[in-house]
Amino acid sequence: MMMKPAALGEQLREWRVRRRMSQMDLALDSEISTRHLSFIETGRSKPSAAMLQRLADCLEVPHRARNALLLAGGYAPDYQERPLDSPEMAGMRAIVEHVLKGHEPYPALAVDRHWNMMAANAAVALLMQLVAPELLEPPVNVLRVAMHPNGLAPNIVNHGEWRAHLLERLDHQIDASADAGLIALREELAGYGGGTHAHDGSAANGIAVPLILDTPMGQIRFVSTVTIFGTPVDITLSELAIEAFFPADAESAALLQAMAAA
User: Fold this and answer.
1) Is the bond preceding residue 47 a cis peptide, omega within 30 degrees?
2) CB atoms < 10 A from the CB of 173, how many?
3) Of 17, 40, 188, 231, whose CB is crowded by the most CB atoms within 10 A?
């Protein structure tokens, strides 16, 4: 049974509370009166589409949720959502594939807002050989692959540290987006267990949390970076992230090159 979307005022109030802003804070930032904002939140006043966008800017509301605000206000959504494999996205898809291919022989993958894998390079496929086949049925969720007992978890040397790092990242995403799918995923992942300590001393000089992975060819230490599109106006692009893993030392780099050549 479909739930009725929340009223505009209720959605705005939820975002304001989530951003820990008072009505006065938001009114000042958006250059309207506190009285006007109160009327919008209680449904006594209908804001223009431009006013809604101004409020959404102040609240840093994601594109998907902005569409929901506009629809609740009686306006057409501003942001389209095209599948990454659609003809209109061919140019963007080529950019993603270029970045992934260019990162070889090191692993890199692209994920959507729920951490489902949208694309990956050949180096990721080598690591997926350590994962049970049932976890590789589409859609492949990379956090589930990383933390499931039948996934990479048994091969992650610093599993407790890496688990805490991933859950913290997920918490930040939930705070920013209020996404129900991410909340459900976080509950699932937390249920796997596998360590509660945040650090076990393996991070080099405390600069970055590494991923230390045991493979049949030897131990590999990774550090990762995340790339996003800078000025997306499409929902799919705004939610797409490319995670690239780099070898943390010369030994790991040599091992990855040997695995690629095998």
Assistant:
1) no
2) 19
3) 40
**Segment 117-166, tens digit of pLDDT:** 999 999 999 999 999 999 999 999 999 999 999 999 999 999 999 999 99
Collect all residues with Cβ–Cβ distance below 8 Å to 252 and sequence separation of at least 6: 219, 220, 221, 222
Distances (CA, A) of 234 to 62, 81, 102, 119, 187: 11, 6, 25, 18, 29
The pTM assigned to this predicted structure is: 0.86
Query: What residues contact residue 25 under an 8 Å CB cut-off, 6+ apart?
Result: none
In this structure, the strands spanning 241-247 and 218-228 are antiparallel
In the block, which residue shows the tokens 């805490």? 164
**Reduced to 3 states, what is the DSSP secondary structure of residue 156?**
strand
Cβ-Cβ contacts under 8 Å for 224 (sequence gap 6 or more): 211, 243, 244, 245, 246
Q: How far apart are CA 123 and CA 112, in angstroms?
A: 19
CA distance 151 to 157: 13
Q: Which residues pair with 227 in a beta bridge?
A: 242
The amino acid present at 25, given as its one-letter code, is D
DSSP state letter for 131? S
Paired residues of 224 in beta bridges? 245
- Bridge-based pairing of strands 117-120 and 211-215 is unpaired
Q: Are 34 and 23 in contact (CB under 8 A)?
A: yes
Tokens of 178: 């209020």
